[in-house]
């Protein structure tokens, strides 16, 4: 019988016969697919340890009800609508920030897909490359830098500088407001979980039960859960292996102004190199034209200093902004001294040379030449855009200075 079957199979799969067969028959008659090969160790979720109370358990629902009655769940609902799963095992910080940005209704000013502007985890790379973050995640300082680069005001607190009472006070502030959210960086080991460093948003807190709600972004591993306040506080003390510092938390809220059409095209590493070149250039510059030449050489030899967030060049508002910018004396001077796009270089000029860290290196004569051009930043249409860019540059500078290995090297001594 097996010989007959083999003969039939050879006949019906021959080229002459196969040409007349429907595709579905060809697929069924083809050689059977090989079964998938799995690693010896794969996982589907983890059981929560006894220290953590599952949010969706009966007891967890009772804690939620009491926290809701206390008024300590005000930002939970906006967060729940934007709940995400981190895209990569080391993307807990990126996933947490993406969730918070969309919860706080921050317009990214750039396209996500189609014609929609929306935050996605793959857009959050202004402080470090996503490839680096995929390897070892982000530190508390890098998380804050990313947040500020994307339109959030931050207050970053390392646990070694925060008492337990202050932690409870900050929890109360965030849980009773819709427009302020806490992101927490902690060690899973202290909570009895597998793994170690992790970020997640805080969804609320129950004063009656003494528990805080962690909306875990590693949903493939653990669900959302309640954990005791004292244990949560202690979980921030173990050192982050990346920078040798304890962990902590960040209080986040939207800036009072829009993110802006333009953004800095540098991360914290390229900004270190660029800022060092600018410091050297400022020290030797004799005129404003020398400063422009220094920026122009950097702009042409590295990542663009300033770039546009989205394809908004056709909007009337954008065209009006360009008309105002091109009418300034700064733009006219830049245009005469560059082969680059003068619009972007003018914004870089204003954003960089209005920072005190560069002005202090200017010779008094040069500073007097510089000031009239910097005063044009006060023009209404220009002020917001430059403010956003300056905030990003200052965030990158602080992120570098807070990076312990970096601060110990020569690259950051001038920052």
From TrEMBL:
PROSITE patterns: PCS. Coiled coil: none annotated. One of its GO terms (biological process) is cellular detoxification of cadmium ion. It comes from the Eukaryota. InterPro entries: Papain-like_cys_pep_sf, PCS-like, PCS_N, PCS_N_sf. Keywords: Cadmium, Metal-binding, Transferase. GO terms for molecular function: glutathione gamma-glutamylcysteinyltransferase activity; metal ion binding. Residues 38-257 form the Peptidase C83 domain. SUPFAM superfamilies: Cysteine proteinases. Pfam families: Phytochelatin. It is an enzyme of class 2 (transferase). Its EC number is 2.3.2.15. This is glutathione gamma-glutamylcysteinyltransferase. It comes from Schizosaccharomyces osmophilus.
């Amino acid at each position: 019988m097996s010989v007959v079957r083999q003969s039939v199979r050879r006949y019906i799969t021959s080229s002459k016969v196969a040409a007349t067969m429907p595709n579905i028959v060809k697929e069924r008659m083809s050689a059977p697919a090989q079964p998938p090969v799995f690693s010896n160790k794969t996982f589907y979720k983890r059981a929560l340890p006894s220290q953590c109370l599952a949010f969706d358990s009966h007891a967890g629902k009772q804690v939620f009800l009491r926290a809701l009655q206390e008024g300590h769940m005000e930002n939970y609902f906006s967060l729940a609508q934007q709940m995400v799963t981190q895209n990569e095992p080391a993307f807990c910080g990126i996933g947490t920030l993406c969730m918070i940005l969309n919860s706080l209704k921050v317009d990214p000013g750039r396209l996500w897909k189609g014609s929609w502007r929306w935050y996605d985890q793959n857009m959050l790379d202004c402080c470090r490359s996503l490839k680096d973050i995929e390897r070892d995640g982000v530190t508390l300082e890098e998380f804050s830098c990313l947040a500020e680069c994307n339109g959030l005001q931050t207050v970053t607190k390392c646990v070694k500088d925060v008492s337990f009472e202050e932690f409870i006070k900050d929890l109360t502030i965030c849980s009773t407001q819709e427009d302020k959210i806490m992101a927490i960086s902690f060690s899973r080991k202290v909570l009895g979980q597998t793994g170690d460093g992790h970020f997640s948003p805080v969804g609320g807190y129950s004063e009656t039960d003494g528990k805080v709600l962690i909306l875990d972004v590693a949903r493939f591993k653990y669900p959302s859960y309640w954990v005791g306040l004292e244990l949560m506080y202690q979980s921030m003390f173990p050192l982050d292996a990346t920078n040798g510092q304890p962990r902590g938390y960040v209080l986040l809220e939207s800036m009072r102004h829009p993110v802006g059409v333009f953004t800095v095209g540098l991360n914290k590493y390229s900004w270190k190199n660029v800022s060092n070149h600018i410091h050297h250039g400022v020290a030797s510059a004799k005129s404003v034209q020398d400063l422009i030449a220094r920026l122009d050489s950097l702009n042409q030899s590295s990542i663009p200093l300033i770039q546009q967030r989205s394809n908004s060049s056709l909007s009337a508002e954008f065209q009006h902004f360009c008309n105002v910018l091109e009418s300034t004396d700064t733009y006219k001077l830049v245009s005469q001294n560059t082969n680059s796009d003068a619009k972007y270089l003018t914004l870089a000029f204003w954003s960089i040379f209005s920072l005190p860290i560069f002005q202090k290196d200017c010779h008094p004569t040069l500073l007097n030449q510089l000031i009239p051009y910097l005063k044009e930043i006060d023009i209404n249409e220009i002020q917001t855009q430059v403010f956003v860019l300056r905030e990003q540059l200052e965030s990158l500078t602080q992120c570098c200075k807070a990076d312990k290995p970096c601060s110990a090297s020569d690259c950051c001594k001038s920052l």
